[in-house]
């Protein structure tokens, strides 16, 4: 696997794991397990950071003058990263709503 493909799969893998953890956080909060929900969100940040690092490496390569080819795989990776970020923000708010509704 070449550099661009490897980076794209690294992004997809990491943000996919983060998204799964974020959804697990929501399910835990729905069940009233707020401590578990917070732990899942914290763990998801580690995977999001790994995905962002892989993405930033590609951005730095291009910024330094290296021409990166167009890649649908990379577009998919970026889409997955952005949707995971959106889901994280929404789930964080939903967890707060569950807490407020039950207190």
Automatic annotation (TrEMBL):
Residues the record marks as active site: 76 (tele-phosphohistidine intermediate)
Molecular functions per Gene Ontology: metal ion binding; transferase activity
Cofactor: Mg(2+)
Keyword Nucleotide-binding applies: no
Residues the record lists as Phosphohistidine modifications: 76
One biological process term in Gene Ontology: phosphoenolpyruvate-dependent sugar phosphotransferase system
Cofactor, how bound (note): Binds 1 Mg(2+) ion per trimer.
Residues annotated as binding Mg(2+): 79
Highest taxon above the source species: Bacteria
Protein's UniProt keywords contain Metal-binding: yes
InterPro entries: PTS_IIA_lac/cel, PTS_IIA_lac/cel_sf
A family per Pfam: PTS_IIA
Keywords, alphabetical: Magnesium, Metal-binding, Phosphotransferase system, Sugar transport, Transferase, Transport
PANTHER family: PTS SYSTEM N,N'-DIACETYLCHITOBIOSE-SPECIFIC EIIA COMPONENT (PTHR34382)
Name of the featured protein: PTS lactose/cellobiose transporter subunit IIA
Species whose genome carries this gene: Bacillus mesophilum
